[in-house]
Structures are given as structure tokens and as C-alpha cells.
Inverse folding.
């Protein structure tokens, strides 16, 4: 009998939480803690707190993070200090980090800064882990604790509840990093963390922890910045690319600074002029977000697709990016949490990595999709290897996998298609030539008996 899907495999930290909290906390905790690409943040010590998002709260300098430490009264809650990521990254790293006291004045200051939210994730300690960058690529982390992990006597509690609600109104954080690439303004208390390889960590470990307020879109100055969407872009590997990003500000005399996320490899944006240029090195389709920001922190952005065709062009070659998932990450695929896998419980068709949809044995939906441009006049075929592993019996389709191109369903499979190995499938997409389409796999399970749909070695071949 096959081992149930990898969400049932416990990390060491999670096993401790299960022992401490019992089976009632297990179900909520294990699904959030599971990540296909865990970072070092996930192996910090935690304590059981069944009421929290993951069933656990943090330990390291937790009183300082949440405003219940001996120096909490020194926090300047009545005023904020405008700053930038670059300025905070330039601060000297403290020689020591006291467990229940603050590094003054930084950890008693409430900072307000404009940034780009690039990624976010629910951590094992129930924090929302936000990765921030500026137009020059300076990184830092901001964290929003779960209010259930904040002491009732903390002066920060009401603001933390507000920040958590502001984020929840915009995004749903899960146990795997999700991409945002949106302009935000973050207000929070300065905090120095231990350096242990966290995703997005600043060189000196500076963070905003706890976040007290988060605003999406334009910044603090009351201005409106508008970026003109240039529409979908195409290019070719090895060919020079050039795109002028254009933006305007509602206030006269403002100087704009430009940044871009998701550009194809080999391309870069001039932060002063907004000119994207370079020579693309890798074929595939990217989702690009360009942002313009003025001196007040007001910002605007536009998102569009940029397709880079293989060198030589014409009706030849394989078009999908990361077709065998061997980068160990999803991009340029978009996925639900935990789909990209290297688990030995469901081994790849070739290589190490595959896309493992479903396998929970409970009502659950997983998705895997990629946008691709099919050149006009070309014959196109999408192909993939599929392994269906199920605990269902009989021929009734309880759990399903559908393949869509745009809104049209072009193929479907179910637990009734179970097999001992991988089977090859191909679908003619010639009718979509001349269009940019999204190829999407959606797996859906009912309330009982797991079915795993495992995909590998995908391709969209032109001929």
C-alpha cells in the first residue's frame, strides 16, 4: 500500500507540536507547516498554541517581537519615522540580541516605509512572513504575528489585529511562498533577528516585527502614480529587447523611480528612466510587474506577459518553461501550495521533481498552470506523463483531473484511470495557433479516499 501523500510526513518541529497539543491541533498545524521549499524560518523553535493559525507560536525573542518585553514601554507608538529599506539595511548589526530587552533606539522606533511586497507565506510560528524589496533590490522581512500568539497585555495587540485583517482582506497566506509583486506601505516596529537563512533576510537581520499597519497600492503622500500597461511582449532568445515603461504622477515636479519583478532572464530595468533592455537568455513566458514610485512613496504598477521564443523562431521547438519541474520551484508555472514535489512516495517520471496534485483523502483542489504563446501558422501539441495513484475502487469518477486551455476543457481523467506507472498523453492545440493561452491542470478530490494525480515531463511542441 502506498504511503499517503507527503502532507502526512512530519518535520521535527511539527512533531514536537503534535506531542504537546495532541491530535486536536494536528489537522490544522500539519497542512500549514508543509512546504515544498522550506526555508530556515520553518525550523525555529515553536510552542503549542491550538488557537493560532498553525497550532504553534514562536519562541526566539518572542516578547520583543510582540511587545511584552521589559522595554515595551519605550516604543514610540505616538509617532512614526519615515525611512527606506536601504536605510534600514545600512544599520549596524548588533553584537548581541537580548532575549527580553530591546536594541535601542531601533527596536523602540515605529518605522514607515514604501516597498514592493514580492512574496508572502504563513510560517510554522503562525507569523505572516512578508518579503520586501526596493527599486534597487535591497531586501528585508516584515512579519505580522497571529494575534492569538500576542499577549493580551501588549500595547501592540490592537494594531497587529488591524494589520492582520488588512492583509487577509487582500491575500490568503499558506505554508508555501506566493508571489505578489505589488507596491505597499508598511508601518512596524524595528527588530533585529538572528540570521539563519530566512528568505528575503536583510544583511543585518533588520525586520519590521511586528507590523502595525499595511496599505496596498499608492503610498503615503496622497499622490497618484499611473503606469501605462504596455500590453503583452514577445521576443527571441539571443535577440536584443527594448521596452520603455511610461508613467505619470498627479503631482507636478515629482521624480519617479522604476523597478520590475519577473523580467525574463537577461533583461533589466533602468531605475531612473524606466527603460527595460538586454538580451533574453531563456525561452518561456513570464508575468512581469513594473512599478513606478515617487519621492512621497506613492506608487503605481502594471502587470503583463512577456514571452521569449526559442532561438531560430518558426514552428519548431518546445515552448513550456520548466517542463520537468527540475528547478525545484514552480516558476513559470503557477501552482497551489505544495504541488512541486521531490517526495519518494510519488517519484518523478524522470529526474527528481514532479508536480503532485491532490492525495489528501479529503475535499481538496490543486492547480497547475502556465501561460504560453502559440505562434500563428504552427502545429502545436501539448504532452505530459501522468501517474494516477488512488485508494478508490471501481469505475466511478469520484476524484478528477481536468486539463483546460483557456476556458475550454480539452481532457479529463479520474481515479478510474489509475495505473501502476506513468502514462503518456498528448493533446492537439493547433486550433489555438496565433493566441496566448493558459494551459491549466486542476485536480479535485471528494471527502474521502485519496487520489494523487502526478504530472511530469510536460511539453508544448511546435511542428
Amino acid at each position: 500500500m502506498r504511503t499517503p501523500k507527503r502532507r502526512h510526513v512530519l518535520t521535527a518541529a511539527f512533531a514536537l507540536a503534535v506531542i504537546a497539543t495532541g491530535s486536536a491541533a494536528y489537522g490544522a498545524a500539519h497542512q500549514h507547516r508543509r512546504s515544498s521549499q522550506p526555508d530556515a524560518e520553518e525550523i525555529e523553535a515553536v510552542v503549542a498554541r491550538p488557537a493560532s493559525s498553525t497550532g504553534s507560536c514562536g519562541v526566539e525573542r518572542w516578547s520583543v517581537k510582540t511587545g511584552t518585553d521589559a522595554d515595551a514601554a519605550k516604543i514610540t507608538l505616538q509617532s512614526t519615522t519615515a525611512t527606506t529599506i536601504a536605510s534600514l539595511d545600512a544599520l549596524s548589526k548588533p553584537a548581541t540580541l537580548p532575549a527580553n530587552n530591546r536594541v535601542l533606539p531601533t527596536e523602540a522606533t515605529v518605522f514607515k516605509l514604501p516597498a514592493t511586497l514580492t512574496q508572502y507565506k504563513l510560517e510554522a510560528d503562525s507569523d505572516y512572513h512578508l518579503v520586501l524589496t526596493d527599486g534597487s533590490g535591497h531586501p528585508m522581512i516584515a512579519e505580522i504575528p497571529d494575534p492569538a500568539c500576542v499577549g493580551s497585555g501588549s500595547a501592540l495587540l490592537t494594531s497587529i489585529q488591524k494589520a492582520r485583517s488588512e492583509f487577509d482582506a487582500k491575500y490568503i497566506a499558506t505554508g508555501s511562498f506566493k508571489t505578489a509583486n505589488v507596491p505597499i506601505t508598511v508601518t512596524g516596529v524595528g527588530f533585529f533577528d538572528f540570521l539563519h537563512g530566512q528568505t528575503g533576510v536583510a544583511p543585518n537581520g533588520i525586520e519590521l516585527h511586528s507590523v502595525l499597519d499595511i496599505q496596498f497600492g499608492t503610498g503615503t503622500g496622497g499622490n497618484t502614480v499611473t503606469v501605462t500597461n504596455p500590453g503583452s511582449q514577445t521576443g527571441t532568445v539571443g535577440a536584443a529587447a527594448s521596452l520603455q515603461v511610461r508613467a505619470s504622477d498627479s503631482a507636478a515636479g515629482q521624480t519617479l523611480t522604476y523597478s520590475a519583478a519577473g523580467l525574463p532572464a537577461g533583461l533589466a530595468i533602468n531605475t531612473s528612466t524606466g527603460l527595460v533592455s538586454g538580451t533574453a537568455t531563456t525561452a518561456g513566458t513570464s508575468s512581469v510587474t513594473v512599478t513606478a514610485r515617487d519621492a512621497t512613496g506613492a506608487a503605481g504598477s502594471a502587470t503583463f506577459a512577456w514571452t521569449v521564443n526559442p532561438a531560430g523562431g518558426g514552428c519548431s521547438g518546445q515552448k513550456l518553461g520548466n517542463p520537468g519541474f527540475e528547478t525545484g520551484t514552480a516558476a513559470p508555472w503557477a501552482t497551489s501550495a505544495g504541488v512541486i514535489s521531490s517526495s519518494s512516495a510519488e517519484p518523478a517520471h524522470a529526474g527528481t521533481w514532479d508536480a503532485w496534485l491532490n492525495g489528501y483523502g479529503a475535499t481538496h483542489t490543486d492547480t497547475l498552470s502556465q501561460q504560453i504563446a502559440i505562434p500563428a501558422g504552427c502545429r502545436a501539441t501539448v504532452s505530459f506523463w501522468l501517474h494516477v495513484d488512488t485508494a478508490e475502487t471501481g469505475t466511478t469518477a469520484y476524484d478528477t483531473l481536468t486539463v483546460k486551455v483557456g476556458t475550454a476543457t480539452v481532457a479529463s481523467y479520474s481515479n478510474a484511470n489509475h495505473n501502476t506507472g506513468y502514462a503518456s498523453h498528448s493533446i492537439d492545440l493547433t486550433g489555438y495557433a496565433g493566441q496566448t493561452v493558459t494551459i491549466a491542470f486542476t485536480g479535485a478530490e471528494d471527502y474521502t479516499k485519496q487520489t494523487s494525480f502526478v504530472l511530469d515531463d510536460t511539453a508544448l511542441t511546435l511542428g
About this structure: The two ends are 42 Å apart (CA to CA). The mean pLDDT is 85.
